[in-house]
Amino acid sequence: MRLTRPLATAASLAAVALAAGALTAPGATATTPATSTAPAVVGPAAGTVATAGPITDGVTTDENPGVPEGASWTEHYLPAAQAGSPTRVTLHADVLRPADLPATRRTPVILSVGPYFNHSGQTGRETDEVQPSSRFDDLIDGARLMERGYTVVLVDNRGFGGSTGCLDWLGAGEQADIRAAVRWAKNQPWSTGKVGMYGKSYDAVTGLWGADLDPDGLEAVVAQEPLWDMYPYLYSHDVPRYNQTGTPNAYNSIASLGGTSGDTPRYRRAAAYETEHPECLARNLRDNVVNTDDDDPYWRLRDQAAKAQGATTPLFLTQGFTESNTKPEEMTTYLRNHRGPTRGWFGPWEHVRGNEVDPGTGELSQGRTNYFAEVMRFYDRHLKGLEPAVKDPAFAIQDNFGAWRAQPTWPLADRTEVVALRPGSYVDAGPLDALAARGDGAALRGTGLDPAQARRVAERRVPPRVVRREGGDMDQAVRSALGTAAERDATTLAAAGTVPTSYQTWSRPLARETRLTGTPEIALDTRGEGQVHVSMWDVDPAADTATLINENVAELTGTGRTFELKGMDWTLRKGHRLVVGIGTIDGGSWRALPSGRTVTVRGADLRLAVQSTADDRATRGEPSPWLARYLEDNTVPAGTPRAGTFTVPRP
Q: Residue span of the signal peptide, if any (predicted)?
């Protein structure tokens, strides 16, 4: 969490790991709250309560240091549609208005809807001082929203903070909440009727859903590092990820946070709703675990990429191509389906905000200055009708060398072609433990390998693709790679392809520099039961190095499978080679369920979109500090090169 002003008391963030269980909420009398829409105003000082009062009785920073400078804070409750809930749901909103404006002065509204606005903390209890969430104080203070004449509205999703109802993981209930929140913000007497949404991570997803649902009054959306489809966060083409149970358990914990001792009785009752309704928590865990196929109705309802078809709300996006948290999966589909004006910052970084500063280097985490200035030019245009004096590029994109370019859209492919990969076979053995590598008979059962084969795997030192999760809450950076350089055993890409658990296809050296863009798609014609891991590598023959540039996994059907990898933007230098690996899931962020059987790949076609670099138009920006970390963590020796069997399409 980022704070730009001190809390009323010192507080520490109780981080919620992806595998965390539910936290115990503080004791409170928990009953279903009343549904009156009259405002409840907290003030005049932190910890004191006025249970009701006019909307003009706002609280300023002089009265409560938890309120942003220049803002007047009030609380409100609004009714939500009852979609997905057997009981009446009431949503809670914190409203921050410019303190120097009359209560009736109309302003545009910047709205965020999400699970992180509990007064006591975002993902864990961090304070007992009643105050609005500081989640987007960086925007409020950094963009001078109060001075610019904007109102900020923070609405708790159902089941979180001061909102009642069962948490719903972007289902029909939460989609109804988004509509209700936009409608409410549009129709307030202090609103011009122009609403923009803002968020990062989960509340960036609610922004994308706002664009999809297109409620009256929504004019613009800023979404940083969102999910483009809810399914790939827990599964990859029917293969569960390690956070399959951890993520729903973590959000169960967040939903179970209580309010502060200074909150109104109504807020505290609402904040205790999930602990008084354990069936909500049980349903959230069950629904996310039993629905494993992206064609299940549960996930079709939560596919915002598909629902973006024809949407026209203007968007301003950020996305890290090397993200290990909210990955660029279904991103190309979303952007293709969305028809409205779209802008974005894309590049090689982790789960960070556009304005964020890297604590290790002091550099901007994404490498480009003036994020808030661009955001406000975007909002001023769409919410105030002000044409900007500065013309920003539609898309500012950082490549894998750290250089920034401007282009009118993304992806911008010169051509898309299918290349044929060589056939082969592999044993779907999954990750091998140390006992199997030593040839232990009992440990080898189910791997499909005999002791001699296991020794070959150990001797070739197959690189582990292990997720390394650093400390921090669910909304902060999560590093994923082959393991850091210090943790990784010496290995070579070429050696990994000689073991019976995988095989590789090498391209011929590139005749010219070529950018791979968009989302590659692999079509496999296979025989044999099992799972498959497909990886793409950039091999630099001069340096004898190979860098992992894309990967994904899938459960195979009886005859194979066609599936997408991740969205990418990676430039291969002249003379480099593209290597595609096909084999068992030997690590990474997936719960591999190996069949122990041999899978025969009778045919494999890889669809690639390529772009020339000759017409790149430079724009301002420095390399993201995350780029060097990614290259370090995902680069191994290339080893002895193989004969090339395909040619990368020429742009």
A: 1-30
